[in-house]
């Protein structure tokens, strides 16, 4: 049984492609900025004590900043929570619009784990959950560490809840049968 809320974060390893792209493009942008000085915006910022402080803004450096900014957004813009009531996905925490999806354990129809070869080597993957209410996938936990472990934990909780519901139903049927036989 799950006793308290468990936060399942996206991990930085899930953004390895963007991090590699950042590391490759950064020196290229620096070289291009030095080779083509017209890509640098320069001008006086303010004067003090007889001197002037100049601002030099290399425009091409914004490309690697944008790439690493995307990786940061993909990591911290999502929150996956597993608690006593069910599982929850919050997407858009840092965005203007936010989507919150919640599924009770009893409603989960399927839990699938998906990993590419590189994701298996990095120990990350995606969990996809479907419910009886929809034909497709209801929720997806992407970029999480140890997806098989999380999948087993959710399945164990779902199976436990379904067994409890079945035993309560069986107990009520027995009580109803005893009560109708006593009359």
Description:
The longest helix has 36 residues, at 147-182. The strands form three sheets. A four-stranded antiparallel beta sheet has the order 1-4-5-6. The chain has a three-stranded antiparallel beta sheet with strand order 7-8-9. Strands 2-3 form a two-stranded antiparallel ribbon. The two termini are 40 Å apart. The protein has 183 residues and is an alpha+beta fold. It has one domain. It is 42% helix and 32% strand. It has helices at 16-35, 62-76, 117-122, 147-182, and strands at 6-8, 40-48, 51-58, 78-82, 86-91, 99-104, 108-114, 124-131, 139-145. The model has no long low-confidence stretch (mean pLDDT 89).
Q: How do the strands and helices of this protein lay out in sequence?
A:
Layout: E1 6-8, H1 16-35, E2 40-48, E3 51-58, H2 62-76, E4 78-82, E5 86-91, E6 99-104, E7 108-114, H3 117-122, E8 124-131, E9 139-145, H4 147-182
Antiparallel strand pairs: 1-4, 2-3, 4-5, 5-6, 7-8, 8-9
Task: Compose a concise summary of this entry.
The chain is α+β, with helices and mostly antiparallel strands and 183 residues long. It is built from 4 helices and 9 strands. The protein has helices at residues 16-35, 62-76, 117-122, 147-182; strands at 6-8, 40-48, 51-58, 78-82, 86-91, 99-104, 108-114, 124-131, 139-145.
